[in-house]
């Protein structure tokens, strides 16, 4: 348990004591994989590592993964304390030649170092904008949403991103900007 532990040692007439604080960090919960457009999406927003057929995929550490082959995919997540979850349940991805997926609006990667990718806009008619707000609702930027948007001039922190189509919010998502 997380607590302060004390020890006292006595040898003859000599006594020494000391203490140590022990912090037990919680292991993150097992993430869940879902299909999001053409991507596999982890329920964990950070610290992800993807696997295919039980083998680690080097560099695949975002909250999403775009598979290029059929297989059994899993993901684990590591929290800020360095504790790693159990692997997710396997997600069987089957790819058929010419298969298409419905595009769902999304903003990737999250967390980001400043470059956001906007997906799933091809089926939307009219103007689509991206608004970035502070958690308290202060508008930082409003730009036309296209393939990528650069927010690297903003300070590191948590933001709320909204995709807006013809004055209607079509997606609200928390974004972590880490530099």
Structure description:
By secondary structure, this protein is mostly beta strands. 0% of the residues lie in helices and 49% in strands. The protein is built from no helices and 16 strands. β5 and β6 form a beta hairpin. It is flat and about 85 Å long.
What general outline do the C-alpha atoms trace?
flat
Distance between the termini: 34 Å
Radius of gyration (CA) equals 22 Å
Please write the string of helix (H) and strand (E) elements. Answer: EEEEEEEEEEEEEEEE
Tell me the structural class: mainly beta
Helical percent range?
under 10%
- The average pLDDT is 86
* Main sheet: strands, sense, barrel: 4 strands, antiparallel
Quaternary organisation? single chain
Strand content: over 45%
Number of strands: 16
The strand line-up of the biggest sheet is 6-5-8-9
Low-confidence stretches: none
Helical segment tally? Answer: 0
Keywords:
single chain; four-stranded antiparallel beta sheet; 179 residues; flat; 0% helix
Itemize the secondary structure elements and their pairings.
Layout: E1 3-11, E2 14-22, E3 33-36, E4 39-42, E5 48-52, E6 55-56, E7 64-65, E8 71-77, E9 91-93, E10 106-108, E11 115-119, E12 128-133, E13 139-144, E14 148-150, E15 157-165, E16 168-177
Antiparallel strand pairs: 1-2, 3-4, 4-7, 5-6, 5-8, 8-9, 10-11, 11-14, 12-13, 12-15, 15-16
